[in-house]
Amino acid sequence: MERPFARATVSEKAEKSLKSGQVRVYSEEVLSVAGDYRQGDIVDVYSKKGKYLGSGFLNDASKLRIRLLSRNPNDRFDDAFWRRRLQYAVDYRKSVMGGDFSACRLIFGDADGFPGLTVDRFRDVLVAEVLSLGCERIKETIFNGLREILAGMGETISVIYERSDGAIRELEGMPAVSRAFLDLRKDPSAPYEVTVVENGLSFRVNYGEGQKTGFFLDQKYNRQAVAKIAGGRRVLDCCTHTGAFALNAAKGGAESVVAVDISESAIELARENAKLNGLTDKVSFVCCDVFDYLAELEKNKRRDYDLIILDPPAFTKSRATVSAAYRGYREINARAMRLLPRGGYLATCSCSHFMTASLFRNVLHDAASDACVSLRQIEERRQAPDHPILWNVPETEYLKFCLFQVV
């Protein structure tokens, strides 16, 4: 049977990569494309010897020229295909998230077979980020399909908001988009905000203007790990964003919590979240650069804290800047370690997949050496299971979370 798709021939390097389970073909690995196609179309991928390797979205403008979707030559990529894939993703979240299903990531890009697509659920709101041209072409099918699937589970969706304003959109040849795809609220003029519950705490999510989709769901259970050891401790939460780690620590029984962030809007929202949870007497907020704050504490030989949380934004988003990121992570961790007393605790994170787990461990070894301390590991964790890791796709493993005692 003749295939209806254009035919891309890839290099031996790409063939080997795809056979090992990778789902990305880079521009220099595509040798030729035969047949008619539009940008964002699905193409069949073949080796130089004519062996079928899979099918995926093609975009000549992108460095990730082909994003593989399937290795099954019987797939037709019609509405029924996408509906099955959406159902599989939603059913997985329902299974692994249990009572946290109302606030979780429903679609996590390649891990769910939707390259370049993120969809977060905040109660009756879905917030989507579309960063591949292929998913851009089918996003209406995706959004409507998710709404119908959730409705079949008794879950009503009132708003679908698209926050496709990342820089990758431009690299894919698409304009930035930030708008409501669906808005069934009683007051459409109201701010795009919703309140969600995480670990027994309420958080306001500003999905219209906040970072990314408005709230970082991936640290949900790592914040629980911090709360377990926060009892009676003086806590410093660095890069607090909307205050999630800080409030989890306070709820866990911390004596006091200081939350620091360079963003005034983030600090303001974090203050509102503290008020929402009746924790304003335990949590105070400082708007400044975290590096400067830690340096000032070190300069004045202050030992104000016995639990420090480091959850900075990604210091690197490409391989080219990993060395600089290594120095940044090393510095911030060494400063925190020097500020902690013997027996104090450190929770530290990296959210860049380019800073691999082994590389991050090296960072922490070097930082401990710089600070002249030893680390006793309590636990090492990753992102929550609604952000699943595919072992054959390294890019899906990005969040590293380590909890230590300084000894």
What's the structural blueprint in terms of helices and strands?
Layout: E1 6-10, H1 12-19, E2 24-26, E3 30-34, E4 42-46, E5 52-58, E6 64-70, H2 79-97, E7 103-108, E8 117-122, E9 125-130, H3 133-137, H4 139-152, E10 159-164, H5 167-171, E11 177-183, E12 193-198, E13 201-206, H6 220-229, E14 234-238, H7 244-251, E15 256-261, H8 264-276, E16 283-287, H9 290-299, E17 307-310, H10 322-339, E18 345-350, H11 357-371, E19 375-381, E20 400-406
Parallel strand pairs: 1-4, 9-10, 14-15, 14-17, 15-16, 17-18
Antiparallel strand pairs: 1-3, 2-6, 4-5, 5-6, 7-8, 8-9, 10-11, 12-13, 18-20, 19-20
Distance between the termini: 67 Å
Task: Count the beta strands.
Answer: 20
Query: Given the C-alpha coordinates, what overall shape results?
Result: globular
Give the assembly state of these chains.
Answer: single chain
Number of domains: 3
| CATH arch. level architecture of the largest domain | 3-Layer(aba) Sandwich
Low-confidence stretches: none
What does this structure look like?
The protein has 3 domains: 6-70, Roll (Archaeosine Trna-guanine Transglycosylase, Chain: A, domain 4), CATH 2.30.130.10; 79-194, 2-Layer Sandwich (Transcription Regulator spoIIAA), CATH 3.30.750.80; 216-406, 3-Layer(aba) Sandwich (Rossmann fold). 31% of the residues lie in helices and 28% in strands. It is built from 11 helices and 20 strands. The protein has helices at 12-19, 79-97, 133-137, 139-152, 167-171, 220-229, 244-251, 264-276, 290-299, 322-339, 357-371, and strands spanning 6-10, 24-26, 30-34, 42-46, 52-58, 64-70, 103-108, 117-122, 125-130, 159-164, 177-183, 193-198, 201-206, 234-238, 256-261, 283-287, 307-310, 345-350, 375-381, 400-406. A 7-stranded mixed sheet has the order 16-15-14-17-18-20-19, with helices on both faces. It has a 6-stranded mixed sheet with strand order 2-6-5-4-1-3. A 5-stranded mixed sheet has the order 7-8-9-10-11. It starts with 5 loop residues before the first strand and ends with a strand.
